[in-house]
Amino acid sequence: MAGPDLTLADLPLRAELIGEEPYGAPQLDVPVCLNVNENPYPPSSATVHDMARAIQQLAGNVNRYPDREATGLRTDLARYLGFGLTADNIWAANGSNEVMTHLLSAFGGPGRTVLSFAPTYSMYPEYARNTLTRYVASPRRDDYTLTADDILTAIEQHQADIVILTTPNNPTGTALPVSVVEEVLEATTAIVVVDEAYQEFTEIPDDSACALLSRFGRLVVSRTMSKAFAFAGGRVGYLAAAPAIVDACRIVRLPYHLSAQTQALARVALAHAPEMLENVSELRLQIQQLQLWLRDHGLDVVPSQANFCLFGRFADRHAVWQGLLDRGVLIRETGPQGYLRVSAGTPDEMSAFRSALDEVLATFPQRLPH
Ligand SMILES: *Cc1c(COP(=O)(O)O)cnc(C)c1O
User: Which of 63, 185, 224, 321 has the fewest CB atoms below 10 angstroms from its CB?
Assistant: First the structure.
């Protein structure tokens, strides 16, 4: 029973959603997945064992609602981040996508503007749309960097209420120095959200905007357990900010938004933090080596501080992407014209990628001019 013969066009959808497609990097069943910047290493057997035990204990209580405030998890996240933060400084939700939605629900909305800097994460405009917030993307410089002046000028020009600074930026991998964030905070009253989804992959992970939290009440640092922390399936993102920002998120969140299982599994992962993160430096090395290899093959590479990099520029990037897929390697068709993005994988996955790309380059050698 499929229901009455009805398409979306027959329904009274909100005007701004007409013609929209659901978000989605393709989820395909192929041997080598280097398309969504996940950590390719599964948890250790000790971690898996503890996770199973935690779920076993919870299952007997599943008739009860979970801790609405996720206090235990927020305490663990504060300890993980350091910087003297406590649970009152932390908010957590189902991925940083939900954290961002909470922020825009609280500080955006009709008549408010959120600003980011293109090219950047493709989800930001969707959070804005869903929360009825105006979205503006200012261009980055030719090398995808930004100065404090660029950011402050754009805030002024667009009268931004919220600005999102992504570091390292997705899909370019470009990092933004903490000193630039500091200069921006000194000169604006906008809410400044620093999206540090890939911070653990940078050269100095402790060189984080978290260091500025004690001085700036309108700073929000967004993090996720989906990338370096190897917990993408668990769906936990979080932010660090002044307790008043956390209070704002608590108003707009749906009650009991984080399931008991999510909270418990994330806490087990955090208790095993050194193991969860143990391959991060190896992944950083893989992507640094890959950048050299790509340059040796005459390709343009955007220098990356994250676990992925942009390379190109192909006259027909879709053909290159498809050629790799035909050889069992899935990467991401995203970023500026002619570029493709590849994530760091295991050494075996990286060599599969290099072999496949070698073959494809022989078939589609056409490049765009520098
Ligand atoms: C992957 C990513 C996130 C994390 O999203 P989750 O919802 O936590 O999985 C956040 N910001 C950027 C820029 C990303 O690339």
Answer: 63
Cα–Cα dist 210/98, whole Å:
20
- For residues 124 and 164, the answer to whether their CB atoms sit within 8 Å is yes
Write the DSSP string, 226-276. Answer: SSTTS-GGG--EEEEE-HHHHHHHHHHSPTT-S-HHHHHHHHHHHHTHHHH
pTM: 0.97
CA angle 34, 36, 38 (to 5 degrees): 80
Which residues are near ligand 1 (CB < 6 Å)?
Answer: 37, 95-97, 121, 166, 170, 195, 197, 224, 226-227, 232, 237
- Of 115, 136, 126, 208, nearest in space to 167 by CA: 208
Alpha-carbon gap, residue 366 to 127, rounded angstroms:
37
Name the residue with the closest Cα to ligand 1, atom 14. Answer: 197
Rounded-to-10 torsion of CA 129, 253, 82, 122:
-20
Cα–ligand 1 centroid distance for 265 (angstroms):
19
The token duo for 191 is 């809410």
Query: Quick check: 167 and 54 in contact, CB under 8 A?
Result: no
Q: What are the residue ranges spanned by the domains of the chain?
A: 3-43+278-363, 45-275
Element (H, E) at 352: helix 347-363
Q: Which fold has domain 3-43+278-363?
A: Aspartate Aminotransferase, domain 1 (3.90.1150)
pLDDT in tens, 214-266: 999 999 999 999 999 999 999 999 999 999 999 999 999 999 999 999 999 99
Q: Identify the CATH number of the domain defined by range 45-275.
A: 3.40.640.10
Ligand 1: centre distance to CA 224 (Å): 6
Q: Is the peptide bond before 119 cis (omega within 30 degrees of 0)?
A: yes
Q: Is the pLDDT of residue 364 over 80?
A: no
- Tell me the β-bridge partners of 238: 92, 223
Q: Which of 269, 249, 215 is nearest to 54 (CA)?
A: 269
Q: Which two tokens stand for residue 328?
A: 């069992």
